[in-house]
UniProtKB/TrEMBL annotation:
Organism in which the protein naturally occurs: Pelagimonas phthalicica
Any single Pfam family the record assigns to this protein: DegT_DnrJ_EryC1
Molecular-function annotations in GO: pyridoxal phosphate binding; transaminase activity
Identification of the protein by name: UDP-2-acetamido-2-deoxy-3-oxo-D-glucuronate aminotransferase
Single GO BP term: polysaccharide biosynthetic process
Keywords of the record: Aminotransferase, Pyridoxal phosphate, Transferase
InterPro entries listed in its UniProt record: DegT/StrS_aminotransferase, PyrdxlP-dep_Trfase, PyrdxlP-dep_Trfase_major
Coiled coil, from the record: none
Family according to the record: Belongs to the DegT/DnrJ/EryC1 family.
Lineage: Bacteria, Pseudomonadati, Pseudomonadota, Alphaproteobacteria, Rhodobacterales
Record-listed E.C. numbers: 2.6.1.98
Signal peptide per UniProt: none
Length: 401
């Protein structure tokens, strides 16, 4: 009998009941705007910021409209100007180069390794080209952060972390997003907490925090923040920082607070799913698994493997055979951007130089979501299907056609 998987790869869990209750309370009082508070009231948004800062061990936190907005705000807050070069990963998603381009700045792409992290040797040669690295922990893979930070510090390059896929992850026991000068997170539906849209921004730098707060559209109401620097810091920046509205509202914040309290438990559940699929794919001929450094504790909300040096036709064959059995794989090597996936050379607004070593890896990356609505039996079944279909195409010899 041919096994078929019938689950949905895009179905997340419901919002926890205490999130629904908190959202109902906001709807009932009607004060959705974060600065719309009655005497003595602390807004859901301000409380979310206070709690997330404490959870991450950061001094300051700002809640915003999206992860992409957090990234663009980070660039503005560190002083990136139109025409500046900003280093970033070749293997990432469109909002990252998009945030850089939205500033009129120019992305300079850094290659990817077989472990799916930024190529630190390539980075080393490119560091002199820029003062800022927007580091994307794409699909939750953390590079050797000790080496990266040492290199960037030595070169005077500021690191902005894109933690859209590493909320809840750790490097050497420290939350991801705390190694760089700014950590940016997304609370969009497909990330680790779900408010539909939303983003979070953390830093220990008081001036960056004040600038980001004004940028986000705080008008002169910044004293209503609970995780922002004191008024004296705002005095220094308030006349020279434009308002680029992108605030979070109280409804989203209300939904997020209970989810953030569950983050560690959810990370463990995700990693059980990841480990189950990973174990099921061990030693599949033709398939290369991704190794991760011992110091990394990722959150396995998706899994990747490589079909390295396979022909495009054979990769496509694996993807369609798996799709026919209900397993939705995404391929990063496709010539045309599809769904959420695209390649650095499909972002044609940003000039790029070919990176043959990275191109070889990108051409082999196969990617799959692991929503928490899958149970461990689902994950084992998915792994059996992938294993069988990769094996069938591999044995037919089509992989090298
Ligand atoms: C989702 C995502 C973002 C931005 O998030 P939005 O909230 O959708 O703007 C940034 N980087 C990566 C890698 C992402 O996947």
């Amino acid at each position: 009998m041919t096994e078929i998987f019938t689950g949905s790869f895009t179905q997340q869990e419901p919002i926890p009941q205490d999130g629904i209750d908190a959202a109902m309370a906001v709807l009932q009082h009607g004060r959705l705007h974060r600065y719309n508070v009655v005497e003595g009231e602390l807004s859901e948004t301000a409380l979310l910021e206070q709690e997330f800062a404490a959870q991450m061990g950061a001094k300051y936190c700002l809640a915003v409209a999206s992860g992409g907005y957090a990234l663009a705000t980070a660039l503005r807050a560190v002083g990136v100007k139109p025409g500046d070069a900003v280093l970033t990963n070749a293997f990432t998603l469109a909002p990252v180069p998009g945030a850089i381009a939205s500033m009129g700045a120019t992305p300079v792409f850094v290659g990817v390794t077989e472990d799916l992290v930024i190529d630190l040797d390539d980075l080393e040669t490119k560091l002199p080209q820029s003062k800022v690295l927007m580091l994307s922990h794409m699909r939750g893979h953390l590079c050797d952060m000790d080496r990266l930070i040492a290199m960037c510090d030595a070169a005077g390059v500021k690191v902005i972390e894109d933690c859209a896929h590493t909320m809840g992850a750790m490097w050497n026991g420290v939350p991801s997003g705390r190694q760089g000068i700014i950590g940016c997170y997304s609370t969009q539906t497909y990330k680790h907490v779900n408010s539909g849209e939303g983003g979070l921004f953390i830093t220990d730098d008081e001036e960056i925090a004040a600038r980001a707060t004004i940028l986000s559209g705080s008008y002169m109401l910044y004293e209503r923040h609970l995780a922002a620097p004191g008024p004296e810091v705002f005095e220094r920046v308030k006349y020279v920082t434009p308002n680029v509205s992108g605030r979070m509202d109280n409804l989203r914040a209300a939904i997020l607070r209970p989810q953030l309290r569950d983050l560690e438990a959810q990370a463990i559940r995700w990693n059980q799913r990841y480990d189950t699929v990973e174990a099921g794919l061990h030693d599949t001929p033709g398939l290369t698994q991704i190794t991760r450094p011992d110091k990394a504790r990722p959150v396995g909300s998706s899994i990747q493997f490589l079909l390295l040096d396979w022909s495009a036709k054979a990769v496509q064959e694996v993807i369609s055979r798996c799709a026919a059995r209900g397993v939705e794989l995404k391929w990063f090597g496709g010539a045309e951007p599809a769904g959420f996936t695209s390649r650095y050379d499909s972002w044609r607004y940003a000039a790029s130089t070919a990176m043959p070593k990275s191109d070889r890896i990108l051409a082999g990356i196969v990617d799959m979501r692991l929503p928490l609505t899958f149970n461990l039996e689902d994950c084992a079944l998915i792994a059996r299907i992938i294993r069988a279909e990769v094996g069938a195409v591999w044995q037919s010899g089509a992989a090298c056609d």
